[in-house]
Specification:
With 110 residues, the protein is an alpha+beta fold. 55% of the residues lie in helices and 22% in strands. It has a five-stranded mixed beta sheet. The longest helix has 33 residues. It is rod-shaped.
Length: 110
């Protein structure tokens, strides 16, 4: 059993049981009276309350992760470019392609 809540605006607590899930609405941090007993039972049964993110927060986190990965790819493959300039040994085409894709993603998400 797990319960999740939206800590940022403290509007929703969602408890997930083995047999389904329940949403408990909150207003200004106060749980609706008709659902307080369910929450108390949930906690008494060993339920754990964890924070969760809104869809917008999940999307933003995923975009930040992809942006960091794009930057990391460029950093990790810079040596190919330096080697090509120093020795003339060509950078593999796939590296050039992926670096272009990484730069395009970074530029699109500035």
């Amino acid at each position: 059993m797990k319960a999740k809540y939206n800590d940022e605006n403290n509007l929703t607590v969602k408890m997930t049981y083995d047999d389904g899930s329940y949403e408990i609405a909150t207003v200004d941090g106060s749980i609706r009276a008709d659902l307080t007993e369910k929450l108390n039972d949930f906690l008494a049964a060993g339920g754990i309350i964890e924070p969760f993110m809104t869809d917008a927060e999940i999307d933003a986190e995923e975009a930040q992760k992809k942006l960091a990965e794009a930057h990391q790819y460029l950093n990790d493959t810079d040596w190919y470019i330096v080697r090509e300039q120093d020795t003339g040994k060509p950078t593999p085409p796939i590296v050039h392609q992926k670096r272009e894709e990484a730069r395009a993603y970074i530029n699109a998400h500035k």
